[in-house]
Design a protein that fits this description.
Length: 492
Amino acid sequence: MNPISFNNSYAQLGGDFYVRTTPLPVSNPELIIFNHSLSNELGLSGTGLDSPDGAAVFAGNVIPDGAEPLAMAYSGHQFGHFNPQLGDGRAILLGQVVSPDGAQFDIHLKGCGQTAYSRNGDGRSSLGPVLREYLVSEAMAKLAVPTTRALAAVTTGEEVAREQLLPGGVITRIATSFVRVGTFQYFSAKGNIEAITKLADYVIERNYPQVKDKPDPYLAFLEAVINRQAGLIAQWMQFGFIHGVMNTDNMSIAGETIDYGPCAFMDEYAHDRVYSSIDRRGRYAYNNQPSTGLWNLTRFAETLLPLLAEDADAAVEIAQEALKKYVGLYEGYWLNGMREKTGLTTSRGKDKKLIDELFELMATNEADFTLTFYYLSKLKLDSPEEDKNLRDLFKHPEQFDDWAQQWRERLRLEDSDDETRYAKMQAVNPVYIPRNHQIEAAIRAAEDNDDFSVFHDLHEVLQKPYELQAGKDVYMLQPKPDEVVQQTFCGT
Ligand code: AMP
Ligand code: MG
C-alpha cells in the first residue's frame, strides 16, 4: 500500500470531540465492490486500496499509515426525544484526506466494531444495510443529490445476531464532513461554548469558507446551513425519496444526505408514505420531511445562540429571523425543481396549483412517482400519440387527460417545442431509481445465496439513471403485487 495523505484535522480539535478507537478486526474480509471512479476523483488511485490489501483496510483489519481512527461524539433528538449521549456506535472515522482539488473529505468505516458509544449495540452491521447504503447513496450521487458517497463494501466472514444470524459487512463512506446537528447539540447540552465555537470555526473553514468574510460569520453560517438543507430536502421531494430517520444526529451540517437506514424511494405516490419499520407514527413520512428539516434546523440554531449575540433575547431574535427564511427558500427550490420536472421554463402564478393538482391526481390514481415524470417528458404538445404510457399509470386515465389539457395550455404560453423540452426534462426525470423491491432482491441473493450478481447489475444500471439502457426495462418497472416491499429496516 502506498501512503494516503491524511491530515486528520478533526483529531486536532481535541479529546472532547471523540474517543480514539481502533476498529476490531474481522476473520475473513472480502471485497464486494470498490468505487474506482470515486477513488480517482478523491486522488486515492495509486494507493493500492483497490488491491487485496484494500479489503483489509475497508474491514478495519489494517489501519493505513497516517490514519488516526476515532469515534465521533454527538447527541441527538431521536423521534423528538433528546439523547445526550449517542456518538459513533458502530462507525469509525479514519481521518481526513485532501483531494486533488484541495477539498478535505472524511473516510468513515461503518460496521467495524464497538466503540465507547455503542451502548448495548454490537458495533456491527449486517450485509443488507451495507448493500442498501451503497446502492442508494451512489444512486443519489448520480441523480445529482448531495450525499455521502460509498467507496467500498466488504463482507466480514462473520455473522451478526439480529432477529436471526446474518452475514456481516462493512461499508466505507466518504463525506465532505460527518459533523451533524447532533455534534453541536452534544456541546450545547454540556454548556460548552468554547467547544461550540471551535466546532463552528472548524466547519466554516472546511465547508462554508465563504461566510468568513461576512460581517457576522456565525449568522451567515447558520443561514448557509439553512439554505443547503432547504435545497437538499426539496431535491428529496422531487425524487420521491424518504430518508426514514431524520433524527438530528442524522442531519449533516454540510448539507449532504447522510446515514442511510430504512430509507426508500416510493413507487406509487402517496403524500404520507412511510417505509421505516421504526417510524410507527409517520413522524418522518414523505410529506413531513420539509417541516422536520425546519425542526432540526431550529435545534441547530439553538446551539449557536451564544455565538449570535451576547444578549440572550437578541440572539433568539437573530436566530428566528434566519429560520423564518427556510420556508421561502424551500418552496422556491421545490417550485423551481418541479417546474423543470414538468417542462416549464418560465414562471406563472398558477404553476404551483398545476403541479399540486398533478400530485393530487397521482395520489388518488396510485400512479408511480418516477414513471409519471419520465413519461411526462415524452409527451407531445400537439398530439396525444405519446400519452398512452402515462395514461396507463392512472386508474382513471380521463382524470389525467383533464390535467394534461391544462398542462398543454400552460406550455403554449412559453413557446415550448417537443424536442427541447424533452431534452431538458429527461435530464431531471430519471428512468431508474433504486426501487425498494430491486434492493431487496439484491440483498436476498447476497445474504441467502452469497450471490452478488444481482447487486452488481442493479448498481450498474443506477450509474446512469437518466439514460434508457437497452435490456434493462425490469429496473424501471414498478414491483409486481408480490414484490412490493411494505417496510424497510434499520438493521441495527
Ligand atoms: P442511527 O439512527 O442508525 O444513525 O443510529 C443511532 C445511534 O445508534 C448511533 O449512535 C449509532 O452509532 C448507534 N448504533 C446503531 N446501531 C448500532 C450497533 N449495531 N451497535 C452499536 N451502536 C449502534
Ligand atoms: Mg446515525
